[in-house]
Amino acid sequence: LADRIGVKKVLTAGSLILAVCAVPLFQWVDSGSFVACLTSQIVFAIGMAMVQGPMPYAMVQMFPTQYRYSGIAIGYNVTLAVLGGTAPLVSTWMVHQLNDATAPAYYLVVLALISLVAAIAMKIDGSTEQ
Questions:
Q1: What is the mean pLDDT of each run of 10 residues along the chain (130 residues)?
Q2: For residues 95 and 102, what is the distance between their CA atoms, to the nearest angstrom?
Q3: Which of 35, 109, 112, 115 is most buried, by the most CB atoms less than 10 A from its CB?
Q4: Alpha carbon distance 62, 88 (integer Å)
């Protein structure tokens, strides 16, 4: 999909899906229905695939060749450690503070909105269709 319509468009759409759908899908999962859980997981998987699938290409395009390896390594791994590593702690704290089992969705919305802004600001096209 990213090859056909462009990396930036796919990243933007995936971030938007996650930002808009996170809270309702978390609430739907909390209903306890198998169909709700399965459908929610499929929508989350689609949104995450739209963000994570084209990400390697986008990161390669963001750095000049001489700094590419270090730029990608630092950018990806620091973000993953700081945000991904603390996500369970932050989510547990939010559930406790807000007394709401769906509170981690708010964290996901904030991060998806940051990703959306970053995707919109990207200076790459990424369409490789010929």
A1: 91 96 93 93 96 92 91 92 92 95 94 94 65
A2: 7
A3: 112
A4: 29
